[in-house]
Write a structure and sequence with these properties.
Length: 598
């Protein structure tokens, strides 16, 4: 049990301090890929993670990672780029997308050499499967682009990156919670205040650069595929540092979560030939996406399922889900290609997916929005009419918005995103460290601010419980900011979330004698979720069009004239600003917006 009193009495004099060249907050694939690049270049790197590194959510990634290796069917990075731009509903920044798709094949091979045990084809090359939104020849036949290690690709990648970091002597602070960034008066980011979860000890980590790789915020919604820890802490830290976060109205609902529970059934299940049916046994995706059918992009499939259920064609006693059918694939394929899915479905539903259909419904999955960055992972903020890097601050992975996913991410592109931009940020930080050899002096006021925020969670006694408020916040977000949205419902959503924020002020930890530091952590996480819920509903209310995952029943069309732009949400005054999409790729012609059909 942690000593909560020691936190309250901590002050600047007694505060333990450590200095590193660079601080990486988050030990998922994004953080570890960046850390590896740095440690291998002999930088002194600290990685802080609130869970043991290999428990980060990357470990749960199932289906695979996209790269145009062309091991199964013809392919090239330019087609991959086209699919990603189209998948993003033209909101993705095309320079970043080109950069990512061109780097993909190289990075898969690099991971293989680092030890990732990819599944093999008969001829020994890396196995690839079909995923949603993939095409050959700019919108032609289905492509087969997702490199997989069975259905445990994230597990294989994360463990490999962790082991390589151990070898490279990266310094790990496991089960340490980052509370807030530390900035000086000139806006330089100089590290972060952290809390060791087991002991309650505080540690101030000073660094010449700080990289946020804290993952997504799936815990904003009640039914989600994310780990309990995915509370968007990095995004909230950025908001509290006075910087904006981008495109928060775009949250991906994955079509196939286990109905009522949320656990993910990988798109790879449809990639292997599985498909969705309604209560009449009809393969309904043929009506919504005649060509791609069940492998249309995720926003399209999620909306189709919601419409089937809404129009009374749902399955089960309550007609509240559809079925994913795999039995026609044969037990051998299902068990060999999708062993993790078989385990999960047997454990949670008590059925064998090779024999019985899996009940599924869309579930909150991926945070497309995030901390705005450039291609080198540098966090950028508006300055005059343009934008400039925030000195010393980087972000990569799901917490960042570079933006390669725009309004809708393609399956298999996130594992790619984290390694591509993890490496790019590592390289840029190395250059920064060469040019900036010394630590800047620390600003005590900023440390005090973080300490004050912590001290607020010493309060026990009468008041609402944190867990109750978290449940209510998640239900509120699901009800008012789900797959389909409208002005009326979103306005109510804003009011509801603001009311919850007010109630959070009076919330308390449980009885002091029984309080563990984990209770304090949950309170800090809820504060973070609250900031992000407000950012999400406000951004969604303002965007009066339908694009990608943001689907408005009162503005059903995409409106490129007024809305082909990124939103920026600021904590101060709950203000929204907008900035243009980077339409110009690095070396090829841009893909201008056109109607998106699958
Ligand atoms: C079930 C599931 C399946 C998926 N399948 C695929 C797939 O097949 N293909 C694909 O491309 N994508 C997939 N994704 C998406 C992809 O896995 C994630 O987007 C990606 O792995 C995120 O990596 P990350 O490094 O950004 O963050 P994460 O892996 O989420 O790691 C975040 C890290 O930040 C740390 N952290 C957070 N807050 C704090 C704090 N306050 N203090 C200290 N540490 C903190 C955590 O401890 C953790 O180490 C899937 C996602 C889910 C949920």
């Amino acid at each position: 049990m942690g000593d909560i009193d020691s936190i309250a009495s901590s002050n600047l004099v007694t505060l333990a301090r450590r200095k590193f060249d660079t601080l990486v907050i988050g030990a998922g694939g994004g953080g570890l890929r960046a850390a590896l690049q740095l440690s291998q270049a002999d930088a002194n790197v600290a990685v802080v993670s609130k869970v043991f590194p290999t428990r980060s959510h990357t470990v749960a990634a199932q289906g695979g990672m996209n790269a145009a290796l062309a091991n199964v069917l013809p392919d090239n990075w330019h087609w991959h780029m086209y699919d990603t731009v189209k998948g993003s509903d033209y909101l993705g920044d095309q320079d970043a997308i080109e950069y990512m798709c061109r780097a993909a094949s190289h990075l898969v091979v690099e991971l293989e050499h680092a030890g990732v045990p990819f599944t093999r084809l008969e001829d020994g090359r890396i196995y690839q499967r079909a995923f949603g939104g993939q095409s050959q020849n700019f919108g032609g036949e289905q492509a087969v682009r997702t490199c997989a290690a069975a259905d445990r690709t994230g597990h294989a990648i994360l463990h490999t990156l962790y082991q390589q970091n151990i070898r490279a002597k990266t310094h790990f602070f496991d089960e340490h919670f980052a509370v807030d960034l530390i900035l000086d008066d000139d806006g330089y980011v100089l590290g972060a205040l952290t809390l060791e979860i087991e002991t309650g000890e505080l540690l101030l980590i000073e660094a010449k650069t700080t990289l946020l790789a804290t993952g997504g915020a799936g815990q904003l919604f009640r039914t989600n595929t994310n780990a309990h820890i995915n509370t968007g802490d990095g995004l909230a830290m950025v908001l509290r540092a006075g910087l904006p976060i981008q495109d928060m109205e775009f949250f991906q609902f994955h079509p196939t979560g286990i109905a009522g529970k949320g656990m993910l059934i990988t798109e790879g299940a449809r990639g292997e030939g599985g498909y969705l049916i309604n209560k009449d046994g009809e393969r309904f995706m043929a009506r919504y996406a005649p060509k791609a059918k069940d492998l249309a992009s995720r926003d399209v499939v999620s909306r189709a399922i919601a419409v089937e259920v809404r129009d009374g064609r749902g399955c089960g006693a309550n007609g509240d889900h559809v079925f994913l059918k795999l039995d026609h694939l044969g037990a051998e394929t299902v068990h060999k290609r999708l062993p993790g899915i078989c385990d999960m479905v047997t454990t949670f539903l008590g059925i064998d997916p090779a024999v019985e259909h899996i009940p599924v419904y869309p579930t909150a999955h991926y945070t497309m929005g995030g901390i705005p960055t450039d291609r080198d992972g540098r966090v950028v903020a508006p300055v005059n009419s343009g934008e400039e890097p925030v000195p010393g601050l980087y972000a990569v992975g799901e917490c960042a918005c570079v933006s390669v996913h725009g309004a809708n991410r393609l399956g298999g592109n996130s594992l790619l995103d984290i390694v591509v931009f993890g490496r790019a940020a590592g390289n840029d930080i190395n250059e920064f460290l060469t040019a900036n050899r010394y630590h800047r002096p620390l600003n005590d006021a900023s440390v005090e601010q973080a300490l004050t925020r912590l001290a607020r969670w010493d309060r026990t006694g009468d008041g609402e419980s944190v867990s109750q408020l978290r449940d209510e916040l998640q239900s509120t977000m699901e009800t008012y900011c789900g797959v389909f949205r409208s002005d009326e419902v979103l306005k109510e959503g804003v009011d509801e979330v603001l009311a919850l924020e007010k109630r959070l002020e009076g919330a308390v930890l449980q009885d002091h004698s029984k309080t563990f530091n984990t209770a304090r952590i949950e309170a800090l996480e809820l504060e973070n979720l609250m900031e992000l819920a407000i950012a999400t509903v406000c951004s969604a209310l303002e965007r009066r069009e339908s694009r990608g995952a943001h689907s408005r029943i009162d503005f059903t069309e995409r409106d490129d004239v007024h809305w082909l732009k990124h939103s920026l949400f600021f904590k101060e005054d709950r203000r929204l600003d907008y900035k243009p999409v980077r339409m110009k790729p690095l070396s090829v012609e841009s893909f201008p917006p056109k109607e998106r059909v699958y």
